[in-house]
């Protein structure tokens, strides 16, 4: 059934000579769309030196269009091994490498793929040893991973991990232990909105920096973990991780973040199937879209922090610096983070008379422009974003039904027809976005939103999800 049988056999002979420990077999692989094929696969270990020498167990599935299509690669951890999720490995053990993304026959070969696999694993070891208690807690997840690597992709069949019943327990998880992640933990803890806060530290090695300080000073109800299972049954999961490598272009940076999220979001959604995902990673509009796609959650439960901080600052400036409290009442900053955000209103502060209404609109625009100029001088530091995140988390967990300007699916709003996330005024509650608040009609604002949507959609089309 292999279209290029001779080429495939010749190449696999070379693999067998170079890596004699690999064993070959034919098994049925089930793809994401439910289709199945009998495919050649081989399993074995690759030698990796990471301080000490390790043999990393892997399995490679050879597609029937090989060598013109890359293999599908997985780690095969034993019961006493845990998967270190990173930019090259997801929670299911699926392996993602630049070599696979750029696969091109005859330049690309399985031998070359294994060599890059070894090189990348020596930079970031993909497996770690579990203690006996950790291994027991990990057993159910490993069973699930085994099904995924065999091709089973019915996400609805996922069982709940553990026997915890935390329906009345407000638990949140912050993913990422950088400055922003720690700022979110501190702000949420200070606001007292959660009964328990898990800081999921995905970095390599022992705790250091701010994470170490959190351990030293032991905040009540805050737990630091490297294990995704610690996040189980969270009501809100806050994503703060960002790629910190040396990517060449802006698109490369975004793609690296996508690769990072590919290893995180499925694990988070597996352990907390009813959570609201709150995205603070950059660029927030695109990473919220990516999280929505990878999680398969309804759009209402995947939210970006968007321009919530800008909106709160905007209303504060209008009220306290420009003494325009009436205008501040229904004022919002919407669109996308950065220079393209725009002021808008959800109420009608203008008088009915057309002439007077035009004068009032001009006056409002002048005040709004002054406020936006002041706003430009206010940077967004980690602690300020952390306060904004705590603000949003409070509204969600306590079902406050408050309006916030957050990144939500904008399709259908302002004649936007593409699946993009933009900041718009939304009512938030325990189920995430309850309702989008209607904006005052303004052709200029609508035009700017459409322009933002078009540029974001263009970037999304170039990404490999």
Automatic annotation (TrEMBL):
<dbReference type="InterPro" id="IPR016135">
    <property type="entry name" value="UBQ-conjugating_enzyme/RWD"/>
</dbReference>
<dbReference type="InterPro" id="IPR015955">
    <property type="entry name" value="Lactate_DH/Glyco_Ohase_4_C"/>
</dbReference>
<dbReference type="Pfam" id="PF05743">
    <property type="entry name" value="UEV"/>
</dbReference>
<feature type="domain" description="UEV">
    <location>
        <begin position="1"/>
        <end position="131"/>
    </location>
</feature>
<dbReference type="GO" id="GO:0004459">
    <property type="term" value="F:L-lactate dehydrogenase (NAD+) activity"/>
</dbReference>
<dbReference type="InterPro" id="IPR008883">
    <property type="entry name" value="UEV_N"/>
</dbReference>
<dbReference type="Pfam" id="PF00056">
    <property type="entry name" value="Ldh_1_N"/>
</dbReference>
<dbReference type="InterPro" id="IPR001557">
    <property type="entry name" value="L-lactate/malate_DH"/>
</dbReference>
<dbReference type="Pfam" id="PF02866">
    <property type="entry name" value="Ldh_1_C"/>
</dbReference>
<dbReference type="InterPro" id="IPR036291">
    <property type="entry name" value="NAD(P)-bd_dom_sf"/>
</dbReference>
<dbReference type="InterPro" id="IPR022383">
    <property type="entry name" value="Lactate/malate_DH_C"/>
</dbReference>
<comment type="function">
    <text>Interconverts simultaneously and stereospecifically pyruvate and lactate with concomitant interconversion of NADH and NAD(+).</text>
</comment>
<dbReference type="InterPro" id="IPR001236">
    <property type="entry name" value="Lactate/malate_DH_N"/>
</dbReference>
<protein>
    <submittedName>
        <fullName>UEVLD enzyme</fullName>
    </submittedName>
</protein>
<dbReference type="GO" id="GO:0015031">
    <property type="term" value="P:protein transport"/>
</dbReference>
<dbReference type="GO" id="GO:0006089">
    <property type="term" value="P:lactate metabolic process"/>
</dbReference>
């Amino acid at each position: 059934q292999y279209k290029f049988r001779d080429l495939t056999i010749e190449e696999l002979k070379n693999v067998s000579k170079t890596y004699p420990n690999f064993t070959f077999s034919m098994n049925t692989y089930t793809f994401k769309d439910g289709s199945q094929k009998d495919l050649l696969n081989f399993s074995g270990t690759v030698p990796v030196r990471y301080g000490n020498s390790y043999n990393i167990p892997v399995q490679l599935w050879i597609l029937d269009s090989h060598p013109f299509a890359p293999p599908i690669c997985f780690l095969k951890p034993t019961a006493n091994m845990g998967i270190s999720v990173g930019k090259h490995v997801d929670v299911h053990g699926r392996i993602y490498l630049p070599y696979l993304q750029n696969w091109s026959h005859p330049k690309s070969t399985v031998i070359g793929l294994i060599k890059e696999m070894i090189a990348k694993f020596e930079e970031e070891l993909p497996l770690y040893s579990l203690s006996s208690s950790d291994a027991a807690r990990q057993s159910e997840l490993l069973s699930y991973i085994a099904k995924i690597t065999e091709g089973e992709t019915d996400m609805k069949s996922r069982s709940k991990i553990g026997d915890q019943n935390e329906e009345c327990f407000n638990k949140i998880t912050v993913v990422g232990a950088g400055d922003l992640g720690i700022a979110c933990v501190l702000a949420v803890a200070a606001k007292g909105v959660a009964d328990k806060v898990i800081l999921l530290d995905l970095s390599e090695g022992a705790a250091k920096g701010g994470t170490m300080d959190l351990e030293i000073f032991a905040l009540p109800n805050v737990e630091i973990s490297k294990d995704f299972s610690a996040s189980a049954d969270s009501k809100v999961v806050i994503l703060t991780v960002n790629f910190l490598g040396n990517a060449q272009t802006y698109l490369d940076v975004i793609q690296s973040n996508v690769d990072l999220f590919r290893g995180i979001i499925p694990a988070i959604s597996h352990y907390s199937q009813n959570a609201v995902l709150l995205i603070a990673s950059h660029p927030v509009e695109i990473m919220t879209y990516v999280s929505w796609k990878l999680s398969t959650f309804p759009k209402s439960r995947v939210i970006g922090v968007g321009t919530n901080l800008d909106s709160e600052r905007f209303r504060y400036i209008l009220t306290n610096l420009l003494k325009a409290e009436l205008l501040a009442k229904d004022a919002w900053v919407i669109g996308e983070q950065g220079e393209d955000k725009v002021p808008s209103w959800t109420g009608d502060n203008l008088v009915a008379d057309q002439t007077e209404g035009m004068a009032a609109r001009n006056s409002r625009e002048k005040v709004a422009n002054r406020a936006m100029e002041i706003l430009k001088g206010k940077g967004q530091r980690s602690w300020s974003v952390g306060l904004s995140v705590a603000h949003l988390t409070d509204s969600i967990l306590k079902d406050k039904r408050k309006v916030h300007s957050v990144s939500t699916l904008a399709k259908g709003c302002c004649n936007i027809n593409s699946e993009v996330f933009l900041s718009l005024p939304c009512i938030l509650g325990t189920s995430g976005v309850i309702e989008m608040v209607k904006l005052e009609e303004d052709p200029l604002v609508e035009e700017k939103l459409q322009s933002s949507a078009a540029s974001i959609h263009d970037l999304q089309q170039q990404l490999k999800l």
